[in-house]
Specification:
The chain contains 14 helices and five strands. It is of the alpha/beta class. It has a domain of 195 residues: Rossmann fold. α4 links the parallel β2 and β3. α3 crosses α10. About 2% of the residues have low confidence. Bound molecules: zinc ion. Zinc ion binds next to α1. Zinc ion (ZN) binds next to α1.
Length: 338
């Protein structure tokens, strides 16, 4: 792996031509952020904005909201707040591509039981062949991006099936901020920090289309949203964009109220992700020298939600190829030794 210079303010490495460092060692993304802040007078979203939106859609469908539950701290607390703080009638939804960890699934089960909310699990190994293709072709596409295109399409379909007006995701402030920028969170070629990753992902999806099996697979997150708008209008929101709580506060709450547990092994530290995430991270580090978590945490640092040292600690790689090969066993794939 090539040693890269890292921005002195966030955690993005120099990555020509998309991310450059100035003489002061600050990256072009931080620079652009400062310029945008200076020119926009926009206020941060407030909880009253969220309550107003919920009021508008409450009681319009079979359920008030569909909550995407991965078993992680962010989505579990999102479910908790929708039910207890906003008194909505949620349907919890977990998508499992066969790589969800037992710990994550157990977190979701305890939460839905304690909160007494209806719950659907969708398990499918549809994506296995796609991941195998990606790995053996050496494509630089980002596994997490392909997967999120798949599960967002699925989530919109489930929302349409139950006529649910609001989809609740556990996205934190750095992950996305508005419905219209949601598509840019995973696959936007426009954001310089995602440009190389997004280009590779879109290219891979384009090649995939030649295979009849994937003829109907969305070609991008933008296409997912376009299809969703035609099917049934649901908006995607996260309570974390509006709530004043920091992560420690809501983790403490769900640990106490829902018996929520941190997984033993995670990347980034203190998160809950599916096992495939480790493979995605490993590839991103190999191909780009950073991951989408570096992008998200850099945003958190700029917004004052996290320190640079905290981010660097959470982003330390604490796993090796043995773990990856163990994870990939169901695909019959072994990582070539470096
Ligand atoms: Zn920076």
């Amino acid at each position: 792996m090539v040693e890269r210079r890292i921005c002195g303010r966030c955690v993005l490495p120099e990555s020509q031509p998309d991310i450059t460092l100035n003489e002061a060692g600050i990256c072009s993304v931080c620079d652009a952020y400062d310029r945008m802040q200076a020119s926009s007078g926009a206020r941060p979203p407030l909880e009253t904005d969220f309550v107003r939106m919920l009021k508008k859609y409450r009681g319009k469908g079979d359920y008030d909201c569909l909550v995407m539950c991965s078993g992680g701290k962010d989505s579990t607390s999102a479910l908790y707040y929708m039910k207890t703080r906003y008194k909505l009638n949620p349907l919890a939804f977990t998508f499992d591509h066969g790589f969800e960890t037992d710990e994550a699934m157990a977190n979701v089960r305890r939460a839905v039981e304690k909160l007494d909310v209806d719950y659907i699990t969708y398990r499918s190994t549809f994506i296995h062949d796609m991941i195998r293709k990606l790995l053996s072709s050496g494509s630089r596409a980002v596994i997490c991006h392909l997967c999120s295109i798949w599960y967002m399409d699925l989530t919109f379909k489930v929302a349409a099936r139950f006529k649910i007006p609001i989809i609740i995701a556990g996205w934190t402030k750095g992950q996305s901020t508005r419905q219209e920028v949601m598509s840019k969170c995973a696959c936007s070629i426009e954001a310089p920090e995602y440009r190389s990753m997004a280009t590779a992902t879109l290219e891979f999806l384009k090649q995939l289309r030649d295979d009849p099996k994937y003829h109907d697979f969305p070609g991008s997150m933008e296409e997912v949203l376009k299809r969703a708008r035609k099917r049934h209008k649901s908006i995607v929101l996260s309570p974390h964009w509006f709530l004043p709580y920091d992560t420690e506060t809501y983790v403490e709450t769900i640990q106490r109220e829902l018996d929520w547990d941190y997984p033993k092994l995670s990347y980034p530290g203190k998160s809950t992700n599916c096992a495939l995430n480790f493979v995605s991270v490993y590839n991103s580090m190999r191909f780009y020298g950073f991951t989408h978590y570096h992008v998200e945490m850099s945003k958190h640092i700029r917004e004052g939600l996290m320190t640079r040292d905290e981010a660097l600690k959470l982003l330390e790689i604490d796993f090796d190829e043995h773990l990856l090969n163990d994870i990939l066993k169901p695909l019959g794939y072994t990582f070539p030794a470096d």
